[in-house]
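User: My collaborator sent over this chain with a note saying "see what the structure looks like." That's all I know about it. Can you take a look?
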Amino acid sequence: TKVGGMDNRQRLANAFDTAEKKFGIEPLLDPEDVDVEKPDEKSIITYVSSLYDVFPKVKFVRFLILKLTKF
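Assistant: Without extra context I'll predict from the sequence alone. Here is the result:
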């Protein structure tokens, strides 16, 4: 999927869909809940933690968790 012509919510939907289809990660968030000025911190951390469960050795996911916990 080409994401260049997508808006934020379309890109988020694509990312959540890809994570679910390719890695079995439940889409715990809706794009419209994330594409806001202040998304719910606990919801974001819960979703990112599910990514970490699937990719525990990926440094980027650890980086994301650290960044997102410092909103």
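A starting point for your reply to your collaborator: The chain has a mean pLDDT of 82.
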